[in-house]
Amino acid sequence: MKDIFGNLLGLKTSQIKRLENLSRRRVAPQAIVSHELCRDLCALSAETGRQIGLLIDRSGKVTKVLTGEVDRILIPDLRGYRLAPDRLRGLRCVHTHLSDAPLSQDDLTDLSLLRLDLMAVVTMTAEGLPSAIHWAHILPGASESTPYRIMDPIPPFRPEVGCHDLILALEAELARKKSDATGPAGAEQALLVSVFTGPRKEALDSLDELSELARTADIRIIDTILQQRKKANPRFLMGSGKLDELSIMALHRGATLIVFDQELNPSQIRSIADRTEIKVIDRTQLILDIFARRAQTREGKLQVELAQLKYILPRLVTKDIAMSRLTGGIGGRGPGETRLEINRRRARERIRRLEKAVATVQKNRSQQRSRRSKKGLPIISIIGYTNAGKSTLLNQLTQSRVLAENKLFATLDPSSRRLRFPRDIEVIITDTVGFIRDLPKELMAAFKATLEELENADLLLHVIDISNPRHPDQVRSVETILSELNLSGIPTIRVLNKMDRIDRLDHDGMIRRLDGIAVSALNRSTLKPLTEKMEAAVEHLYGSQR
Fold this sequence. Notes:
Layout: E1 4-6, H1 13-22, H2 35-48, E2 52-57, E3 62-67, E4 91-96, H3 105-114, E5 118-124, E6 130-138, E7 148-150, H4 163-181, E8 189-196, H5 200-216, E9 220-228, H6 240-252, E10 257-260, H7 266-276, E11 279-282, H8 283-294, H9 298-312, H10 321-324, H11 344-375, E12 379-384, H12 390-398, E13 415-420, E14 426-431, H13 441-446, H14 448-451, E15 459-465, H15 471-484, E16 492-497, H16 507-514, E17 516-518, H17 528-545
Helix pairs in contact: 5-8, 8-9, 9-11
């Protein structure tokens, strides 16, 4: 009875046998269902007092017989059947109603969510004979609220509607719309989602930052969705109804990825991925993916892979289809691309090996710092929020060519250069990895070797992008991280970067409020007050040490 799905309790043996026989029937590809099959379905429904249904593939073969209740019928898990943004499921559902009621809202929701070829309902007369076939199909280009077309009912004795040709035409239209919407070859297309319980402004700012992260990862953003709740749903984070709407929107608009702004626990990722049948990642995994792209040195790659494995390990509890959606592409690339296919034991072994390698990196960096200390050169470290202009400032101060891009985390590996002040004072100036709000704890732990560079700094340059409307929150985030790293006691100069992008009337107010020096890292002529203050700070530090 593997071809029968549903509750068989209370059915006679002869009725179960007739249900089994239905699974051996075939339908002409151009017909929704045959007239004879309509009569048999209605006769069984009238006799059992239940809705009876069929799942039929495009060749006309009945793949599953469904038994429901008097007012509803459930469709089994269809994850074994193909699904893509430009494809339908390859199955149509035909089931009975024990009255003359047409397609219900549940029928239309199943059609949209499951991406079925067609949904059809056979209504019955009081005598248990087929009355009419009500049917609908997905409509490419329609609104997300009604992503389907309800067709006129047809008589059960003439069920031929050019079914196969219609389905192929629908898929051709879906493929055309996907082609129109697709960005660079191979680019993921994502919906960004934020479910928040606090102030709306904070959620909007955080979603803006998530959009910047997505663009850095070369993700094409289809749309952003916000839902405010008094309390997050422990299973889906958002409400189940809103998640169904999200699923329909994702399928209707060709999304291949859903990115949540909030960190999802392993069970939430599995539950949401099962419900939507689309790859789901969270903000942490997106940041880890960006780090995996940006890591260039062996040290950086080791630290990123360690962070990724520690993040993924709890999500390897079960290896099911939900977790397979995490493999490959955004959130699944990097130095250890095969890690999601190994079991937990091998993952732990790899983590231990990486931790030993990172410990070696820490030891080497410690020796490097020791050699610098013996030379007696002061160390100045540039810190700040990601994309604040740290690498650009380093290039201008030292006439270097460190990579600098208008992207989040453009540079990941720390860079050190020598800088000589006019009074013949020489220092080492170091650019560090950028900070971000709620920096993933996996990254904080893995990049301990990199962040330890800051412990030996004599002076910190805190670069602030004052043209960013979120700069007050960014300043707080950086200072919070410094406090967590026990670095708050190091003397710090605030560098108010990108002064050329704000109104000159606001300069004085910002300088007073932030107690910093306004510069434009792109314009070397604006850096003189900064270099003078740096030189004075270094002289003061070394004078007090003597």
